[in-house]
Write a structure and sequence with these properties.
By secondary structure, this protein is α/β, with parallel strands linked by helices. The strands form 3 sheets. It has an 8-stranded parallel β-barrel with strand order 3-4-5-6-7-8-9-10, surrounded by 7 helices. Strands 13-12-11-14-15-16 form a 6-stranded parallel β-sheet, with helices on both faces. The longest helix has 23 residues. The termini are far apart. It contains 20 helices and 16 strands.
């Protein structure tokens, strides 16, 4: 039936609902669920590691000041007015020309080369430098790597008949005119993905608008580590390499040390300001110095915090530019960002889950407005990625851009009451931390004094405590582990140096369990029918398996059950004798009672006594409540790592 338009009713015809009315309704539901709180916010809000409160509901009153428009200060909504896709940047740590070509032929538009300088000519031999951008990551050999890249570019220009005239610098034509990067759009399957040089920001431009051997990207210098190299390379880029930047301000080491989002932002801004001081002190203008910097940030599976972090980073840097008197337009206007899927969240166990983590992180990075994004291969924690892992990494970009259409709208999260408020509060926390670093004498002094290290260590301490208690779950490791998994074997590689891993303590226990002649096990003493014990049986099995300890139960296992849970006898019901017999048959030495609160009250003490008599070294109980014969309890929020370590000790497994 067709309804005439004049008879359709919109939501505007409903009576308006106030926040107070929502609060009253929500509080009523919570109280029916047994939650006692003064307000829904009190019961449902959470707090980030930066002290930012995440409310359960946002409305228009939460909106901060106008964030502006894309391509205009304060650049919250993006540094590029034209929007479009991001640069697909793949990292290579081993000189493998075939792997590089495979990436470039299948969607990669930028290379991040952590290679020895002498390997660059071989790796780039068949690469059209004018069609991509290159970022170097050579550490102490940055100058050598830059010179090697210049030589490769010069060779390609010479081969194409574009010999430089005597006295010119790399990047100039034989006539002495600087090579132009051109203008154009950005798509994932186009080799030209950087911001157009024609807009003054100095990108690589679209395919065909740079001549053979003309470079774009970043030379990877670090002014805090080697100021002389950074200054020299910056001068050369300013003089004749319009598509290149000299300096990377890398925030990922602070993230990888366990730092929070605001701490990563504050450290990166402080490091950026330090770089500006070094470059301007060497004679570069403020605008030239700003134009030489690219910032690198970690993107995580927490998509909203990642989106807000990248938006906040641009706002923070715009404030620095304003204070320094930098031009509102041109190459240095707006922070250029390279987002990398975070290393700390990656796991060695159940590594396939990393594909999900990096997809979320890539989505957040693109939505947050990153200019370039690197997706780490899912097997990054196992060694050198194979061809399949690299393919999945680059196809993650293609899926998000081409199929999901993430890049069709500029700043798609803009205007969200939640995202805008989160961006604002994250920027405020980061600015406070940046000011604290500045009061300490700047980034170099703060690093030397231990101020930065101490702050990051304190945050990691709080985060690791939450991981231990499984308040910060790690899927496939601390939650829903697979003891029967077969981990892929990869060749050892250099990897990204240093940093913590969120899963490291759980994975160490998994390794310890796997190294035993027979897998450690715990007997789950189920009491009563399946309906009474299944929830706590699953909970206890999940917890013990997160440390590599098998959970053995007397209940009949369902077809296709997890091999980590083994049935030894028919379900013994509530009979302490039968439960004790099943315990003996299991060969375990530690037991855990699993049932309902009612059945615990009726049978826990008798079952615990029977298990003790049968030789149980320790008796746990899944849930809360004290009963004679029960040593300790497992419950949501308990110290899972502490439980696992204690169990290893009880089983006589040396740690």
């Amino acid at each position: 039936m067709t309804v005439p338009p004049e008879e359709l009713r919109s939501a505007a015809d409903f009576p308006p609902t106030t926040r107070e009315q929502w609060s009253e309704l929500a509080l009523g539901v919570l109280r029916k669920s047994g939650v006692e709180a003064g307000s829904p916010e009190e019961a449902l809000a959470s707090v980030t590691y930066d002290g930012v409160t995440i409310a359960p509901l946002y409305d228009a009153s939460d909106l901060p000041d106008d964030p502006g428009l894309p391509g205009a200060a304060p650049y919250v909504r993006g540094a590029r007015p034209e929007g479009g896709s991001w640069e697909v940047r793949q990292r290579h740590e081993v000189a493998d020309p075939e792997a590089v070509l495979a990436d470039l032929e299948n969607g990669v538009t930028s290379l991040w080369l952590a290679l020895e300088p002498e390997d660059l000519p071989r790796v780039l031999d068949r690469v059209h430098l004018e069609l991509i951008s290159i970022t170097l990551d050579a550490g102490e050999r940055t100058r050598e790597a830059a010179e090697a890249l210049f030589a490769v570019a010069e060779g390609k220009r010479a081969a194409a008949g574009r010999l430089r005239a005597p006295g010119t610098v790399p990047g100039e034509s034989a006539s002495g005119a600087s090579a132009s990067s051109g203008t154009g759009g950005r798509t994932v399957d186009s080799p030209a993905v950087d911001s157009p040089a024609g807009d003054g920001r100095g990108g690589d431009g679209p395919a065909g608008e740079r001549g053979p051997g003309e470079l774009a990207g970043n030379l990877g210098a670090d002014p805090l580590r080697d100021p002389e190299t950074a200054i020299d390379l910056a001068r050369r880029c300013v003089a004749g390499l319009p598509g290149l930047r000299a300096v990377v301000v890398d925030g990922t080491p602070y993230h990888d040390a366990g730092g929070s989002d605001a701490e990563e932002l504050g450290c990166s801004v402080a490091a950026g300001v330090a770089a500006l001081r070094i470059l301007t002190g060497a004679g570069l203008t403020v605008d030239e110095a700003f134009g030489q910097l690219e910032f690198r940030y970690a993107a995580t599976a927490d998509q909203f915090l990642t989106i807000a972090k990248l938006r906040a980073a641009r706002r923070l840097w715009a404030r620095v530019a304003e204070v320094c008197g930098a031009a509102a337009s041109g190459r240095g206007a707006g922070q250029r960002q390279h987002a990398v899927t975070g290393s700390a969240m990656m796991t060695a166990r159940d590594p396939w889950v990393n594909m999900l983590r990096t997809t979320l992180a890539c989505f957040a990075a693109g939505t947050g407005g990153a200019d370039a994004v690197t997706v780490q291969p899912f097997d990054a924690r196992l060694g050198l990625p194979d061809a399949f892992a690299r393919r999945i990494a680059r196809n993650t970009h293609a899926l998000l851009v081409e199929e999901a259409g993430v890049a069709r709208v500029i700043d798609p999260a803009g205007g969200s009451w939640y995202v805008e408020r989160l961006t604002e509060e994250l920027a405020e926390k980061a600015w406070e931390w940046f000011q604290e670093i500045e009061r300490a004498g700047g980034m170099a002094a703060a690093l030397e004094s231990g101020l930065v290290a101490g702050r990051l260590a304190a945050t990691w301490g709080r985060r690791s405590e939450n991981i231990a208690h499984r308040r910060d779950p790690i899927t496939g490791v601390s939650e829903f582990p697979d003891l029967a998994e077969r981990i892929p074997v990869r060749r050892a590689g250099p990897g990204r140096a240093g940093g913590i891993r969120y899963a490291q303590e759980f994975e160490a226990l998994r390794d310890l369990a796997d190294a035993q002649e027979s897998r450690p096990k715990v007997f789950l003493a189920t009491i009563g029918p399946v309906a009474a014990h299944t929830a706590r049986t699953s909970f206890a099995a999940n917890l013990f398996q997160s440390g590599g300890i098998a959970a053995v139960t007397a209940a009949a296992a369902a077809p296709g059950a997890d091999p980590g849970t083994t049935a030894v006898l028919a379900a013994p019901g509530v009979d302490p004798g039968r439960i004790a017999a099943a315990f003996i048959a299991s060969g375990a030495e530690v037991a855990c009672l699993c049932s309902s609160d009612r059945l615990y009250g009726e049978h826990a003490e008798a079952v615990a006594a029977a298990l003790r008599q049968a030789g149980a070294r320790k008796v746990w109980l899944a849930g809360k409540g004290e009963f004679a014969g029960v040593d300790a309890n497992l419950y949501a929020g308990c110290d899972a790592l502490g439980v696992l370590r204690t169990t290893f000790d009880d089983l006589g497994v040396a740690r």
